[in-house]
Amino acid sequence: MERQFTKEIESLRLGDGQTFHGEGILAVTKALLQSGVAYVGGYQGAPVSHLLDVMVQAREYMDELGVHVEACTSEASAAAMLGASINYPARGAVTWKSIVGTNVAADALSYLASAGVIGGTLIVLGEDYGEGGVVAQERSHAFAMKSLMWLLDPRPDLATIVKMVERGFELSEASSTPVMMELRIRACHVQGSFRAKNNISPATSKINKLDGPPEDFIYDRLAHPPATFRQEKLKSEVRLPAARRFIVEHRLNETFTGEESGVGLIVQGGLYNGLIRALRQLGLADDFGASRIPLHVLNVVYPLVPEEIADFAKGKRALFVLEEGQPEFIEQEIATILRRADLQTKLHGKDCLHMAGEYTTEVMVRGLARFLEKFSSRDLSPGKSWLTKNQETREKAATLLGALPQRPPQFCVGCPERPVFSAMKLVAREVGRPHVSMDVGCHAFASFEPFSQGNTLLGYGMSLASAAGVAPMQAKRAVAVMGDGGFWHNGLLSGVASNLMNKGDGVLVIMKNGYASATGTQELISSPPEEARASAAGTSAAHADRTIESTLSGLGVKWLRTVNNYDVGTMADTYREAMTTEEKGLKVIVAEGECQLERQRRLRPLVARSLSEGKRTVKVKYGVDEDTCTGDHSCVRLSGCPTLTVKDNPDPLRRDPVATVIEGCVGCGLCGANAHAAVLCPSFYRAEVVQNPGGFDRFVSAVRRSLQKLFQ
Ligand code: SF4
Ligand code: SF4
Predict the structure, then answer these.
(1) Residue (of 200, 74, 66, 185) closest to 126 by Cα position
(2) pLDDT tens for residues 262-295?
(3) pLDDT tens digits, residue range 546-577?
(4) Does residue 522's CB lie within 6 angstroms of at least one atom of ligand 1?
(5) pTM for this one?
(6) Closest by alpha carbon to 512, among 478, 468, 538, 481?
(7) Whose CA is nearest to atom 2 of ligand 2?
(8) Is the Cβ–Cβ distance between 135 and 185 less than 8 Å?
(9) 209: how many CB neighbours lie within 10 A of its CB?
(10) Residues 6 or more apart from 329 whose CB is under 8 A from it?
(11) Are the beta carbons of 121 and 40 closer than 8 angstroms?
(12) By alpha-carbon position, which residue is closest to atom 6 of ligand 2?
């Protein structure tokens, strides 16, 4: 696991009146317990991974409360967990990264939304939209609308976030509808505090068990025809009005008055902090965040409450809607509301702002200025000069620094996936470049230089499935790469089973690094057991498990090889064989090497303990003999390791920079293996740094020094 949450787990125990300090996503975790949640599940993914990670690590305390925590194998299984709240008055929460996770969970969500719930259900979505986003840029809003589930978007302030979690469960129960809560990266990581309450041990839980299913079988709770037809009507005729009533009665949305009463701003709750900062730059908000322009903050972005919007619009010449992402669902709905209420208030939003992409403070200042120029006599020069100053700073930096080199994301130092792509690159020189379907995970970094492999990316665990259409059209075998996380998430069924059923003839490389590494090294069904990790100092813990191989064999994969990643020569031979063998059918290479990030986290404390106990420890380092280095940098082009770089040539008669290994090398061995497999210049050396040396080490060292002296 990426982090130890010891301090955070302690703060989950805070009670009435105590102050919780921390980040937004942990406030959500605490609020779930304050709401009496009975079960929690999810699938990891930024920016909401910490919610489940903390709950998993706090298992002992969860057991005390009777809360069941499930680390689900996909978002679909997490969504299906919420089925517990259809028949029983148990509150449940699940979490995942959106939009990708919501796509995966779509089937279960539709059925859940159709059946409705009696126990409150909350789906916490990491809305990965904007400049820090790493997934397809879409909005969860569309899912809420099409299934008629409610969508919260709380103002990024811990007390508001906590209130919305607690009210979210109540809203869900009041309207028999699942509730989603979208949290952008900034909301998840916003720091703050709130006054805590006691946690509630759920009335129905794994401690307070149910005797069995409901006494009366209620057919209408099953999302199955003919019940689905009635449920479809209930959504708009009963549940939607109930939700709107609850939103109004409990003031979930917030209206702030302001002296500039002729205009008004309607904003998604999640954008509130950025908006206040933008108004501050324009001189329209004070240092404490009080706006001079009236604001209507939508902590619930779906459904809107027509009466609330109409009330806010009344008496105003114009409204400006700040809605991030496309299309402008909220703005369109507000236009309909104004029209139906026969209000002549002018409506602006996307016409003053860009349609797609993140609304940073600068973007909002520009948009607000365009809107206010038309409808207000306010002096907007502070905001405009702030924008000009920013632009001047950028131009000055560009003049002084020139064009900066791009910095695409990279594998970690010593990553076990790098050698596989080195081998694939070497073999491509002989057999030609194949079509490579990439998957979601660390290996997708191989799309960038120096590997430049990966022609498509269609989703988590989807690489082999996405090669199905293209493979028959290719003269060379198509290759799919997926991680062990993707394999268990979706790849086994969508990819492998489908390929076998259709008698496909491709190559699948599975990166078996032991964890769901890209999301924080969470555990998988094939993760090495705890004991193997605790004792395996110096060996690859990924070797301890053979679940992937036995599953593939059981499914009928005939051509199956497991190769140590760092053995580039064997990897290249195996990959070449897979690409060229006459044998038909799916060929799977399980590339085995523990995630180096997790390996180092695991080894560092073990090494530190050995050192403090005075035990002998050996650290391997690689280096480059600068006299031998030819300066052609083939090694750099074949590796891409950040610690293998270049420096000025110390020889005044040679101008080409030489390769060098800098501090940070973890001694993974790739440099040596590449030099050997690609027959590069013999400039690499392997050194062992011995700490707490024994008598024999000292003797060998003394002999070496004497010999060196003699020959020199
Ligand atoms: S997290 Fe692990 S698998 Fe991912 S790039 Fe780093 S070392 Fe490689
Ligand atoms: S041995 Fe080479 S590839 Fe491995 S960590 Fe050191 S410099 Fe990087």
Answers:
(1) 185
(2) 999 999 999 999 999 999 999 999 999 999 999 9
(3) 899 999 999 999 999 999 999 999 999 999 99
(4) no
(5) 0.94
(6) 481
(7) 671
(8) no
(9) 9
(10) 139, 141, 142, 145, 302, 323
(11) no
(12) 665
